[in-house]
Write a structure and sequence with these properties.
The chain is an alpha/beta fold and 128 residues long. It has one domain: Rossmann fold (3-Layer(aba) Sandwich), CATH 3.40.50. The protein is built from five helices and five strands, in the order βαβαβαβαβα. The chain has helices spanning 18-27, 42-52, 68-78, 91-98, 112-127, and strands at 9-13, 35-39, 56-60, 83-88, 103-107. Strands 2-1-3-4-5 form a five-stranded parallel beta sheet, sandwiched between helices. α3 (68-78) links the parallel β3 (56-60) and β4 (83-88). It starts with 8 loop residues before the first strand and ends with a helix.
């Protein structure tokens, strides 16, 4: 079991609603999470990443609708050591984001236990 430390901070970028609430509830049960920062759009996500240097960024791919190219350049420039976990809606998005070796990708609707263990594994690798 990991002990929370300043690097064990997660930024969740998802519109207010059911998904964001579920992520907040799930991640609050992880013993390795010290702080959870919630953002509702890409610009807020970038600000939070610059301010907090999180261990993990969890991004709902729906925030990228219609601006994938600009979002790509923003994320490449501003991740600064953070791991990005993108939650996608379909296989096409999974292929798009899965081609980037810096990204972790999961399709929405995955069993919460799978998401929990993936995040736990990412945080363990960051702390290690």
């Amino acid at each position: 079991m990991l002990t929370a430390n300043p690097r064990q901070l997660i930024v969740v970028a998802a519109a207010p609603g059911m998904l964001r609430n579920a992520l907040q509830n799930l991640f609050s049960t992880l013993p390795s999470v010290g702080t959870l920062v919630l953002t509702g759009d890409l610009s807020s996500m970038v600000i939070a990443v610059k301010k907090h240097a999180p261990a993990l960024i969890v991004l709902d791919a729906e925030l990228l609708a219609g601006e994938a190219e600009s979002a790509e350049s923003v994320m490449q420039t501003n991740l600064a050591g953070s791991t990005l976990l993108v939650l996608v809606t379909d296989v096409e998005q999974q292929r798009l984001f899965g081609s980037h070796r810096n990204y972790e990708v999961l399709i929405k609707g995955v069993h919460p236990e799978v998401l929990y263990h993936r995040v736990e594994s990412i945080l363990r690798s960051v702390a290690g």
